[in-house]
Amino acid sequence: MGQSLEKYDKMTVSQAIFRNALPAVIAMLMTLIYNLADTFFIGQTHDAYQVAAVSLATPVFLVFMAIGTIFGAGGTSVISRAYGEGKHEYAGKVGSFCMWSCIGIGILLTILMLVFMDPLLSWIGASQQTWTYTKTYLTIVSFCGTFSLLSSCFSNIQRAEGQATRAMMGQIIGNLTNMCLDPLFISGFHWGVAGCALATFLGETLGAVYYLQYYVRGKSALDVRLKNFTVQDHVASNVLAIGIPASLGSLLMSVAQIIMNAKMAAYGDMAVAGIGVAMKIVMITGMISMGIGQGVQPLLGYCAGSKNTKRFHAYMRAAMLFATALGIGLTLLCYLFMNPLVSAFLSEPAAFDYAVEFARILLVTGPLFGIFYVMTNALQAMGAATASLIANVSRQGLVYIPMLFVLGSLFQADGLVWAQPAADIVSFLVSIVMYRVVSRKKLQENTNEMVHEPSYAHTNR
């Protein structure tokens, strides 16, 4: 499978990024559509309380995916660098560690969620009108926790094997299943949030099964059988050192959304429904930009492992240009089509007005998303655990959560929303500083040892 990544050295920089990043972007686009579909079809019930309930429950469920990212992002970084160094057996140990850790932790999280469901509902701000809806949704999706972890993990790791298309297909299968079942369960059977949750459960399960059968059938060079599981030889520490910083951004994002929803609940359920829809619209820019970073990470990791610094910098320049153009274009489209987008989810006037106002605020920093995600994925690719941690937690933890309390107390509901753009600007600057520091240290300290690119890689720079 290391050969699968080596093939990108034979391509021009633009071709390599296009071939590896496009499937990741498509996968994130499918994930985006899947996330929008849940809220869209719940919106067709014309019940803003059900929309608010899904908004309250979604960040809780995303905790599963965030934990899966620990092993997905960490495993991707370690495996791609191991292939670059020719350590194929070690890569297999890492794959096995990631898989079985996801299974064990997923089961544990499901049990904890079911046991502590009522205190959880109180904490996230469920009102008397949204309590039953939110509890129904979370109870159903909690049973697919293990599958969510596995799907999140292997959608990343298979890109480290050079299987970008397969990684994309697993996400597409899961997301299409969810999207096809949403209208049937929600509108056709009139199951409301229960149908939405059941569609999510089946989508996550099928996506995970698709990834697992690839390993069960022996198609992969990674030996993920239980007998190959180990935490020794720095397998666990190497994965967690990169995976925890990478996932903290997603984990803190879920926690921050929970805090946001709980504080926004003071302004009524319509405000909760409005911020939920506004965040969905901003995801159009954010998640696609995230796909660029995820797609280029294995290429950067392979270059870092093989000490090909010239190729590394060429990938970075091209990815940054692409991400910037995409971020600006998507942000403009969201502004231009704001009212039609919001009306697809909400018909209640008060909730509609909240959503439009909040989305316009959140999109102020939309053009910065792509650069931020390329930078943070580059830090992960270089194995820079501390720098990756600082960059990721600055956006959703170190800055955003405090800003929620400070700006929320000063400017009420609008202040809660402005907390995110403020955090975006700070984290953007932090990521640039971290990348400059780390790249100089990691890629230039051993310049004389770097491997020169083959002549065919010098074309079309």
From TrEMBL:
Q: Name one GO cellular component term.
A: plasma membrane
What does the entry give for GO biological process?
Answer: response to antibiotic
Q: Which GO terms describe its molecular function?
A: antiporter activity; xenobiotic transmembrane transporter activity
Keyword set for this entry? Antibiotic resistance, Cell membrane, Membrane, Transmembrane, Transmembrane helix, Transport
Principal localisation: membrane
Which domain of life, per UniProt?
Bacteria
Q: Where in the cell is it found?
A: Cell membrane
What membrane topology does the annotation report for this chain? Answer: Multi-pass membrane protein
| UniProt keyword Transmembrane helix, yes or no | yes
Q: Which InterPro entries match?
A: MATE_fam, MATE_MepA-like, MATE_MepA_subfamily, MdtK-like
The record's section on Pfam families has: MatE (PF01554)
Span-the-membrane segments of this chain are: 21-42, 48-73, 94-117, 137-155, 167-186, 192-214, 235-259, 271-293, 314-338, 358-376, 397-413, 419-438
Reply yes or no: does the keyword Transmembrane apply. Answer: yes
Q: Which family does it belong to?
A: Belongs to the multi antimicrobial extrusion (MATE) (TC 2.A.66.1) family. MepA subfamily.
**Matches recorded under NCBIfam families:** matE (TIGR00797)
From the Swiss-Prot or TrEMBL record, give the protein name: Multidrug export protein MepA
